[in-house]
Specification:
about 775 residues; alpha/beta; 28 helices; 18 strands; four-stranded mixed beta sheet
Length: about 775
């Protein structure tokens, strides 16, 4: 059998150095080649040959590098989990941040017997179910350059009998169940902060250490026994922090600095005191990682960005004392440490330095696609930070440099997320050539995984397509938001407290599909669906954030410009007892935990399109997915199709309104994206991951653009109405004008008073649609 296992002739192994290669993507029905180069990006062609023939590896094994340090006080937990894993197929370890779930999972993966065919350890933080499934496939099969469709992926994964360890899983119940079903004969052991509600999961809560174990941990960190006067203090401190090992490590560090063990009253100020006692180079390291919103950097990045060859050793020391977290990919900063160090610096690590260093890294010949995929979150954060700080061109350059290798890693959802933020940065920079590059890549990606024709892909509006990828990015960032929120936060400074309000938390119970039919649905949905027919679907990111516990510090109400929905839900009261509804464009309070529902405000004259994620999910269903569904209004056809007896104004007004509606739809998508970014930033602020409330200028600017679009729409209608000769056409135009003015009025009042405004365009859009349909009829369409 050839080395490439059925890959197209001449494709060979992917060459990471010059970033070129060909991937086979598809199913039994459609097989495509995705050819990728650094210069021109991706192209998709139909492959006439057979599917590749994946070969199961004789020894399936991907385990953590080591079991980390010796576990202290966890003998009973290890015993309970080992027995559960040996007798159960789905086992969850859940508990608070810092309680030691990841360390325990790594220990189990390295010490327990493997499954009948091997074991696989996957760091799942921020990944979608599809990307995790692809990772399991890559670990288990030798199939170079091959990304199976979901149905084919299921056929291969269901034959495996592995013990699969998933760390930091942030998937909702539906995606978890779908992932488990794909590898139905394998055992899954996974960690997360919230208890899973999936049927059949044996959930085991990991609590803090006992007093005796806490004393043993502190002694190990101090490298000495506790003095008689210290033992009761450690006992009391253990009770105060609920035995949390991360916080106990910080307590031990405090004792090691020479002032002895802190008192309980000292705990609220313990972290700032510890940071002040660190060496400057250690604070610099925390400053860098604290600026990345929980994303990880490898030792190589730390060395390049800080200019210190001992950065790895410094990081290991900070991990030992509970100030950093270590993983297979590198190091990350806990949310409370990040907030504290950024408050001290009053700034973030320069985004331009971050982008230049990461760009050089991804372009290096020895940086592989898998290396880039392992750091997709850091890349996303760097691009977003560059755009926010006035270095959008550098952010777009980083995204473009990373895009080919991330595509070649076969982690297509991570790739899509990067394309979304890269396109946004290119647009902010005013770089049309870069915008077009990301748009071409997004279309190639959609065609590769969506099984739709090239003509259909090219017909998708740029704003709609990229809005889908922004939604995907919000989903992948949802895990980080939920983790940050559940980690707790310090109190908001008094100067800010009086100016903020509690975000609305609501459970979405209705999903309106792209054909306008309402279906009952659980709060956790499978995929974000971008629906261009004025409907609303909750996003993954909203779902993740909603599952996180509320924090003490709350911010302004979330903004939601979703389309019309069937039901409106009451907001969850804040800690103070007040209830603040989310601001919606369709009457549905569907935001959760400060993250918008990621659907468009109201759309006029374009086709409804399922989102990228929805298309990928539907691909593994028995019936073929719909690709394009006609909107109730529909874009008018060529003007020469009008009747010879129609009002002459029809010859100009129909194409003008069609063009202006497309502009409006694109700008409303960008407004929704800006609001989603604001809500995500607000969730980080509420969680304590950031110390400054986000600036609302971006989404106010975007909604202002929507108002400008509506003014153009209004002017066109007024001028046409003044020229109309047919009374029916004049009446139609008047009805459309009234509806458009009402919609514009709501947007204008919204911008003036965010705290109490509500945008509900349900009835106005309905009136507009009805008048549009009547106008087409009266114009002979």
């Amino acid at each position: 059998m050839s080395e490439n296992n059925g890959a197209p002739e001449g494709s060979g192994r992917i060459r990471a150095g010059d970033v070129s290669g060909t991937m086979v993507i598809g199913s039994h029905n459609t097989v495509s080649n995705l050819k990728i180069t650094a210069e021109s990006g991706s192209t998709v062609t139909v492959h006439g040959g057979p599917l590749p023939d994946p070969v199961r590896r004789p020894s399936i094994s991907q385990l953590p590098r080591s079991a980390a340090e010796l576990l202290i006080g966890r003998a009973r937990d290890v015993d309970v989990l080992q027995k559960a894993i040996e007798t159960r197929q789905l086992v969850q370890v859940w508990g608070a941040s810092g309680v030691g779930k990841s360390a325990l999972l790594r220990h189990l993966a390295c010490t327990m017997a493997r499954g009948p065919e091997g074991a696989a350890y996957v760091e799942a933080g921020g990944r979608t179910a599809d990307d995790i499934a692809q990772a399991i496939f890559d670990i288990s099969f030798d199939a170079p350059n091959y990304k199976p469709s979901l149905e084919v992926l299921k056929e291969h994964l269901k034959t495996l009998r592995l013990r699969i360890y998933l760390d930091d899983t942030g998937l909702d119940e539906k995606d978890l169940r779908r992932l488990f079903d794909m590898a139905g004969q394998s055992t899954f052991v996974f960690t997360s902060q919230q208890r899973s509600a999936v049927d059949g999961v044996h959930a085991i809560r990991l609590d803090g250490l006992t007093a005796s174990a806490a004393a043993e941990l502190v002694e190990a960190l101090l490298s000495r026994e506790l003095r008689p006067d210290e033992a009761p203090i450690v006992d009391a401190l253990c009770d105060a922090v609920d035995g949390n090992p991360l916080r106990l490590r910080r307590i031990a560090l405090s004792a090691a600095t020479g002032k002895g063990l802190p008192g309980i009253a000292d705990l609220p100020e313990l972290l700032p005191a510890l940071l002040n006692k660190l060496r400057p180079q250690e604070r610099d390291l925390l400053y860098l990682l604290g600026s990345l919103s929980g994303a990880e950097l490898a030792p190589r990045h730390l060395h390049e960005l800080l200019g210190r060859p001992d950065a790895d050793a410094l990081a290991e020391g900070l991990v030992r004392h509970g100030l950093l977290l270590a993983s297979e990919a590198g190091y990350s900063c806990p949310p409370d440490v990040a907030e504290c160090v950024l408050n001290m610096r009053r700034t973030e690590f320069p985004a331009d330095r971050l982008c230049r260093a990461l760009t050089a890294w991804v372009e290096a010949r020895d940086t592989t696609p898998d290396d880039v995929a392992a750091h997709f979150q850091a890349l996303d954060v760097a691009v977003l930070r560059a755009e926010r700080s006035g270095h959008a061109r550098l952010g777009a350059a980083l995204a473009r440099a990373a895009s080919p290798k991330l595509a070649l890693s076969r982690q297509f959802d991570a790739w899509g997320s990067l394309l979304g933020v890269g396109w946004s940065a290119a647009k902010s920079a005013g770089d049309k050539a870069e915008e077009e590059f990301f748009l071409r890549e997004a279309r190639a990606r959609k065609r590769a995984i969506g099984r739709i024709t090239q003509a259909a892909v090219m017909g998708i509006e740029a704003g709609v397509l990229m809005h889908e990828l922004v939604a995907l990015h919000a989903h992948m960032a949802g895990t980080q938001v939920a983790v940050a929120m559940s980690a707790g936060t310090q109190a908001i400074p008094a100067a800010i407290q009086g100016a903020v309000q509690a975000p609305a938390l609501a459970h979405a119970s209705t999903v309106v599909t792209s054909v306008g039919t309402a279906h009952a649905h659980a709060a956790n949905v499978a995929r974000p669906v971008i629906d261009m027919s004025s409907t609303s679907v909750p996003s993954h990111a909203a779902t993740h954030a909603a599952n996180a516990p509320a924090t003490a510090a709350q911010g302004p109400p979330p903004i939601d410009l979703s389309g019309s929905a069937t039901h409106s839900h009451a907001a969850t009261p804040s800690a103070a007892g007040a209830s603040h509804p989310a601001l919606t464009a369709g009457g549905a309070v569907s935001a959760k935990g400060g993250v918008s529902a990621l659907a468009l405000a109201c759309t006029i004259g374009v086709a409804a399109v399922l989102g990228v994620g929805a298309m990928a999910y539907v691909n593994d269903q028995p019936s073929p997915p719909p690709t394009v569904v006609a909107d109730p209004i529909g874009t008018p056809g060529p003007i020469d199709g009008t009747s010879d007896t129609a009002d002459p104004v029809c010859a100009t007004v129909l194409p003008d309104l069609s063009s202006e509606s497309r502009t409006f739809n694109t700008d409303s998508a960008l407004a929704s994206s800006a609001i989603d970014s604001y809500n995500t930033a607000m969730a980080s602020y509420n969680s304590g991951a950031t110390s400054t409330p986000p600036d609302d200028n971006m989404f106010l600017t975007e909604t202002g653009t929507v108002v400008s679009d509506l003014e153009d729409f209004e002017t066109t209608l007024q001028e046409a109405a003044a020229q109309a000769q047919d009374s029916s056409v004049s009446s139609d135009l008047g009805d459309m004008l009234t509806a458009a003015q009402d919609i514009k009025s709501q947007y204008e009042s919204f911008g003036g008073d965010q705290g109490s405004s509500e945008i509900d365009t349900t009835s106005q859009v309905s009136d507009l649609n009805s008048a549009w349909s009547s106008l087409q009829t009266d114009c002979g369409e």
